[in-house]
Amino acid sequence: MAKLGTKTYQNRVTTGFTRLKIDLICRDLSMFCVSMLLLANIYRDIECKI
Asked: Which domain of life does the protein's organism represent (predicted)?
């Protein structure tokens, strides 16, 4: 009985970690996209001024 409980707990923890990792990766990607868009806009502004 105790073994079964530990197993489900481990599974839950693993799933939690995986989800967290995916969330972090998604956040990193979206941050990257946003910063790239901002850089592109700034670059365009500089180009226009020159």
From this structure: Bacteria
Query: What CA–CA distance (Å, rounded) separates 12 from 5?
Result: 11
Q: Which two tokens stand for residue 9?
A: 């707990």
Which one-letter DSSP state was computed for residue 13? Answer: H
The pLDDT tens digits for 5-43 are 788 888 898 999 999 999 999 999 999 999 999 999 998
What's the structural domain count of the chain? Answer: 1
The alpha carbon of 47 is separated from its chain's Cα centroid by a whole number of angstroms, namely 32
- Can you give the residue range of the structural domain that contains 21? 1-50
Q: Which one-letter DSSP state was computed for residue 50?
A: -
